[in-house]
Specification:
Layout lengths: L13 H7 L3 H9 L15 H6 L6 H18 E2 L1 H8 L8 E4 L3 H6 L6 E2 L2 H10 L6 E4 L6 H10 L5 E4 L2 H8 L14
């Protein structure tokens, strides 16, 4: 568990846990089948203890440990904006494949050089012919969805897949301050 993360316990609200540990939703579903369907769904204002209790009385400490362990694995998937910029400007023969998860309008407004807008056709092309050892970097606006997409590709053998920490917004702030920034209307 990284040092800048607040310790969670049974009194923590699910919304706060998911904000602090974006991969917790995936981790809870994968191990405990929590949150994957209507019968096991949870609300942001429920405590972790409440969710554990109504899911066969799961031990809260075990679930907390699993969230921390999953977060440690997720941290290995992330690439910082500065590290991505270094890779992009290194002049290596094969640049990473950049996959943009945002909307077409966002993509057309600003994107990383050489990025491809995600589509099902693109996913099929990657699965059909992309070398498994090529670096793939997935990004969105703020980094809240790209981690799950990267985990999906890693699970399919693309072990060099990374998710851009903080998305293109962090890249514009930390790596390329000349890149335009924007705010989506429904974001905080």
């Amino acid at each position: 568990m990284s040092t800048d993360v607040q310790r969670i316990d049974g009194s923590a609200l699910m919304g706060d846990i998911l904000a602090q540990f974006p991969g917790a939703k995936r981790a809870l579903f994968a191990r405990y089948h929590i949150g994957g369907c209507q019968s096991c769904a949870y609300q942001d204002d429920e405590t972790l203890a409440q969710v554990c209790e109504r899911n066969e009385g799961l031990p809260v400490d075990e679930v907390v440990d699993h969230i921390y362990a999953a977060d440690e694995e997720d941290q290995k998937i992330l690439i910082s904006p500065q590290d991505l910029q270094a890779v992009l400007t290194s002049g290596e023969a094969q640049a990473p494949r950049l996959i943009d998860l945002r909307t077409r309008e966002e993509y057309e407004a600003v994107q990383l050089p050489g990025a491809e807008l995600f589509s099902n056709d693109l996913l099929q092309a990657i699965m059909g012919s992309e070398p498994h050892d090529r670096m793939i970097v997935i990004y969105d606006h703020t980094g809240d969805r790209c981690l799950d997409a990267a985990a999906y590709l890693i699970g399919h053998g693309y072990k060099q897949t990374r998710a851009l920490r903080g998305g293109i917004d962090a890249y514009a702030q930390e790596a390329d301050t000349d890149m335009p920034r924007y705010k989506v209307e429904f974001e905080d």
